[in-house]
Design a protein that fits this description.
Blueprint: H1 3-28, H2 33-41, H3 62-69, H4 75-87, H5 94-118, H6 123-171, H7 176-186, H8 192-206, H9 211-222, H10 225-240, H11 244-268, H12 270-273, H13 275-301
Length: 304
């Protein structure tokens, strides 16, 4: 197959995929009625996409429900996918449909691209197409897991600073809801992921949701153990009427201790991790520099 024809064929497939994606985005870009009502009661500065309850196959968005039925995933799988996307910071319901479509389209495009370059008659082409299809299938999940890990790390690192800000606001006379709003404004630059989750929390409470239920949704979205511990502590504090500021101060100290211990653990692992670069990269070059002249001299003196 000529190279020019293969390049043209690949360009056609990519163009068709892009056009299909743009068409789907234009059709599904409208927000649901519940989301529009939330936007109507909030100022433009505080508007944010809230993860609505219910799977895609429910009546909250009929268009997305119709598109989701075309994917080889059950309603439970789509609901779990929505939760994974929310943990990565992607709150739009359209993302679940796009992700499911990407898991189907990428392997097909990868296989077609390999066959267009290597041909159908070559055995190596079939093996490469198999690996390319598998890679195209697992690539979206791998990228999503990386995004979830990075977002969880940012939220975990920002929790001690969040607790300090909440303590300052509570001791200054603010309520817990006002303290959360102020903390989301102050943490917007240093920890944008945590600030976004706090804005969603304040949006849910202003929309009429109970405070404890909004905190439980925060723990469910982030899937961070420290956030779950914080929510459990707030539930116990609200139930027994203890001091919120004192409890937050104790928890902030514990989180800083955990973060310090994690840093010490990573520092202790450096020596073991350096073994492999030393053995495979530094030692061969060192042997060439040290023993190379001796080997050359030996070959010159003893040619046979």
């Amino acid at each position: 197959m000529p190279v020019e024809f293969a390049v043209a064929l690949g360009a056609v497939f990519v163009s068709v995929a892009l056009l299909a994606g743009l068409a789907a985005s234009a059709i599904l870009s409208k927000q649901s009625a519940a989301q529009r009502r939330l936007d109507a009661i909030l100022p433009s500065r505080a508007r944010t996409e809230v993860l609505l309850q219910g799977p895609l196959t429910s009546e909250r968005d009929p268009k997305l429900a119709r598109w989701s039925r075309l994917l080889p995933k059950s309603a439970q799988d789509m609901s779990g996918l929505e939760q994974r996307l929310a943990a990565a910071g992607i709150k739009s319901p359209l993302a679940a449909v796009a992700f499911g479509g990407a898991e189907i389209a990428l392997p097909v495009l990868a296989v077609v691209g390999v066959f267009s370059f290597l041909g159908l008659s070559d055995r190596a082409g079939w093996v490469a197409a198999l690996f390319a299809g598998a890679l195209g299938y697992i690539a979206p999940g791998f990228v999503l897991d990386s995004m979830i890990g990075a977002r969880r790390k940012q939220i975990r690192n920002g929790l001690p600073d969040l607790l300090d800000l909440l303590i300052v606001c509570l001791e200054a006379g603010s309520s817990l809801d006002q303290a959360v709003i102020k903390a989301s404004e102050e943490l917007g630059i240093a920890y944008p992921a945590l600030a976004e989750e706090l804005r969603i929390l304040s949006t849910e409470t202003r929309a009429g949701m109970a405070r404890l239920e909004a905190f439980r949704n925060l723990a469910q979205r982030t899937r961070v153990e420290d956030v779950r511990a914080l929510v459990a502590m707030l539930v116990q504090t609200d139930r027994f009427g203890t001091s919120v500021a004192q409890t937050l101060r104790t928890m902030a100290d514990d989180m800083r201790l955990k973060r310090r211990q994690a840093a010490e653990e990573m520092a202790a692992k450096v020596g073991v991790k350096l073994v492999f670069p030393l053995v495979f990269f530094l030692f061969p070059a060192l042997y060439v520099v040290v023993l190379g002249p001796a080997v050359i001299q030996f070959l010159r003196n003893f040619p046979d």
